[in-house]
Amino acid sequence: MAANSIKIAAPASCVLVADQHGARLFAARRRRGSHPLGLDEVASHDNALIAHDRGGRPPGTKVRRVTFANPDRDHDVMRDQFAADVVAWVAAELRTIPTDGTLRMIAPPEFLGAMRRALSSHPLAARITEHAADLTHLSTSELERHEAIIHELNPAT
Question: What is the pLDDT at residue 35?
Fold first, then answer.
């Protein structure tokens, strides 16, 4: 888990860009110039779940029993566990920064669904909008110019 601390002076709209490997939380701000939207990375969170072998045991565990694991189910369980972890992390981060009460979640459809399921049992006090897109590989400057981010922060455009 890594965090970058940036002081946000005015209430900001928050943007979460996440997938099953990691998440980045941004504070959106308005600025003058050719690119009216600015994103400040407030914090980041990596998936620190330990890799497991097909039987669900940590690698190197000397167990002589054969286990028939379903790799798709194991993948789903690990994705859901990380989604719940991201939701708890975002809730904690939102308590430490001034926000206007909005959170825009941008994630691939499967991970967005996992976060939605995790939110159903978590009291995250924010107005949440969702956008299905995989943008975690983009830099901050690329995100500021990406059509999905601009649309989420300026729905009238």
Answer: 56
